[in-house]
# Entry
Amino acid sequence: MKILRKIACGVILIIIFLSNIALVTAAKQRYVTCGSVVKLMNTDHKVRLHSHDVKYGTGSGQQSVTATEVQEDINSHWVIKAESGKVCPRGEPIKCGSTIRLEHLETKKNLHSHHFSSPLSGYQEISCYGDNGEGDTGDHWVVICSGDNWQRDDSVMLKHVDTDMYLSASGKTFGRPINGQMEVVGVRSSTGAVHWQTMEGVFLHAPDLAAKHMHMAHTEL
# Structure
């Protein structure tokens, strides 16, 4: 009987432990993490941040950045990275207030801004810049959100470090060759269409220690 009671107690402890592991894992999966590949939707206009190998005909002449209503477009994927010169571990939650870069997956250029006027509205131009994911400080954005870490269902703002402008959608749409796509700009006010939420993507998470703990629990029995 003592052996049976010991086994029963061990089983209960394992069940409690696995429940806790499941809760921790679920909590981890709520966060936007370093190395994840995501689509960002402007929550005011319901369009996804987008780029492509099409250059602006005015302003900087760099690779254009727009927003599209098309959910499935592969040119709307962005890789979340640390700021230049720093490394964030893959799967680490992005802290609110931290500085990141967003690399366009298809063209390997970073989301960028500078003191050029946008082509349609005259706000600050947003472009993609750099080679193989390396650019300059114009690629740095501060994640503004509530709480400690950026959660996947949060509506966040992205503030450009060099110019203090917020990433926004202007509401104006282009003609050819990017017909129907919306202009993306930098604006000074935080009260406009400056809110973004992660949608489709591949969210990386740091490996948990469940296997190790399970081994320890089994050994203790």
Q: What stands out?
A: The CA atoms of residues 13 and 217 lie 8 Å apart. Helices lie at 2-28, 210-220.
